[in-house]
């Protein structure tokens, strides 16, 4: 048993690295799940707003969200009644959203008395 060690045992190193990789991947998954996945359209000019607007998100599947809270079909007017009419409204629509659905949502918002309705895009 008087053997000389002339090699480095890499198995414990590999085990530790795999555990660290699993930890990093798990935390990265938890961090990204808090966002609603929307692939925004692109534009050359983008406006910068200083105040916090009301954010309405329309996903590719047609789901509607008001400030990251799901809104059922036809419940948008009831959800917006508590909001002041002077507030700015930003619509975040996925770029594959049907134009008819987008126009219907914007028309519904404007019919409630909101005048500052804009579309959120990504600058090119």
Descriptive overview:
This protein has a domain at 42-123: Nucleotidyltransferase, domain 5 (2-Layer Sandwich). The chain has a five-stranded mixed beta sheet, with helices on one face. Strands 1-7 form a two-stranded parallel ribbon. It contains three helices and seven strands; from the N terminus they run H-E-E-E-E-H-E-H-E-E. The protein is elongated. The chain has helices at 11-32, 76-80, 99-111; strands at 42-43, 54-58, 64-66, 69-71, 89-93, 117-119, 122-123. With 124 residues, the protein is of the alpha/beta class.
Task: Characterize this entry briefly.
This protein is an alpha/beta fold.
Key phrases:
single chain; 124 residues; alpha/beta; Nucleotidyltransferase, domain 5; five-stranded mixed β-sheet; two-stranded parallel sheet; 3 helices; 32% helix; 19% strand
SSE string, helices as H and strands as E: HEEEEHEHEE
- Alpha-carbon distance between the two ends: 68 Å
Number of strands: 7
**Beta-strand proportion:** 15-25%
The CATH architecture of the domain at 42-123 can be given as 2-Layer Sandwich
Shape, per Cα inertia axes = elongated
Helix content: 25-40%
- Spatial order of the strands forming the largest sheet: 4-3-2-5-6
Spans with pLDDT under 50 lasting ≥5 residues? none
Q: What is the makeup of the main sheet?
A: 5 strands, mixed
Q: Mean pLDDT, as a whole number?
A: 81
For the CA atoms, what is the radius of gyration? 24 Å
Please, how many helices?
3
Structural class, judged by helices and strands?
alpha/beta
Q: What is the CATH topology classification name of the domain at 42-123?
A: Nucleotidyltransferase, domain 5
